[in-house]
Amino acid sequence: MLKNDKDLGEFLSNKPIYSKIKLESGFSSANKFDKSTFQYFCEIDESIETFELIVYHGYMPFRDHLNTGGQKHWKNKDDFFSLTQQYKGICKRCNKYHIDFLLNTYADEEGLHLRKVGQYPPFEITPEKYLLNYFIKEDKENYKKALLLLSQSFGIGAFSYLRRIVENEIIRIIEDLSNLDFPESNQIKDLLETYSKNHQMANLIEGINDYLPNTLKSIGNNPIKVLYSQLSGGIHSFSEDECLEKAQLIDTLLKFVIRKINEENSEIKIAREAMNKLSEK
Ligand SMILES: [Zn+2]
After folding, report:
1. pLDDT band at 138, cuts 50/70/90?
2. How far, in Å, from the CA of 163 to the mean position of ligand 1?
3. Can you give the pLDDT at residue 153?
4. pTM exceeding the 0.70 threshold for the entire prediction
5. C or N terminus of the chain, fewer CB within 10 Å?
6. If you measure from the C-alpha of residue 40 to the centroid of ligand 1, how many angstroms do you get, rounded to a whole number?
């Protein structure tokens, strides 16, 4: 049921084309969505921003603009109300990036519904902001593709993209660990130094085992090692369902690791600021 802007935003952002959502019985006008706001990914700002929806009024083609007879074309074959309108969603931050929607408001025996019948640029699933901020450019795209494939249960495809992401990001993750402010980070730096000379990835991954921050060790195993182990072996030995499960697990673990690194970073920043302020007094 669409009750507020938040529901509308969720519908516009996260539902594929031809999805529908029920409208409240008090719904009065399709134009009602005009000036609604919603959260959406802006490709210019490269982040999730507030967008405003603007309807193409054009004197409401409601009545007689169709040569062949006006109002009857705003009903479906069963004589139920059906109106399609074009909307533009505009990013309020850059005021430049925009997305077009074709929205159909229609009635049937069950009441009124809103249906998405067009969207350009096309529907894709929007990843969480902290991940997009973390990934390199190529992996932002890889991750969006992985999520889209996951949403349709295409396991082999999703698994391939997530493996590629792990492959691309794993050294960066270890570098970030080495830059965290905790006693063992120097040992991780040393291991990276050795890796830069001998390129023995397995040794690096094994080596950092003892030096991980507690937050990452808290789940009982070295999550970096588990992620890395997903890169070995061919995809061909797994079924679509096995790949789907693996892809979901990699996604969960990758998010955990990146979230923890971000948390460590911001906690240390806050603690350091507090310390500096106190020592000034
Ligand atoms: Zn923008």
Report:
1. very high
2. 30
3. 76
4. no
5. C
6. 9
Alpha carbon distance 18, 121 (integer Å): 15
Distance (angstroms) between ligand 1 centre and the Cα of 97 equals 5
Ligand 1 centroid from CA 96, angstroms: 6
Cα separation, 159 vs 249, in Å, equals 10
Q: In the chain, what are the domain boundaries?
A: 5-120, 129-280
Q: How far is the CA of 229 from the centre of ligand 1 (A)?
A: 38
**16-30, 82-96, 263-277: range with highest mean pLDDT:** 82-96
| DSSP assigned state of 177 | H
One-letter amino acid at 270 equals: I
In angstroms, the CA 222 to CA 215 distance is: 11
Please list, in sequence order, all residues whose beta carbon lies within 8 angstroms of the beta carbon of residue 125, skipping any fewer than 6 positions away. Answer: 14, 144, 147, 148, 151
b/e per residue 89-102 (b: at least 16 CB within 10 A): bbbeeeeebbbebb
Span from the CA of 51 to the centroid of ligand 1 (angstroms): 8
CATH number of 129-280: 1.20.120
Distance in Å, CA 92 to ligand 1 centroid: 6
Report residue 77's pLDDT band, with 50, 70 and 90 as the boundaries. confident
Lowest mean pLDDT among 36-40, 72-76, 136-140, 214-218: 72-76
Distance 250 CA to ligand 1 centre (A): 30
Helices of type H across the chain: 5-14, 129-134, 137-151, 155-179, 185-198, 201-207, 214-217, 223-229, 240-280
Is it the case that residue 239 has pLDDT exceeding 80? yes
CA of 13 from ligand 1 middle (Å) equals 15
Per-residue pLDDT tens digits for 30-64: 677 889 999 888 989 888 899 999 988 655 555 54
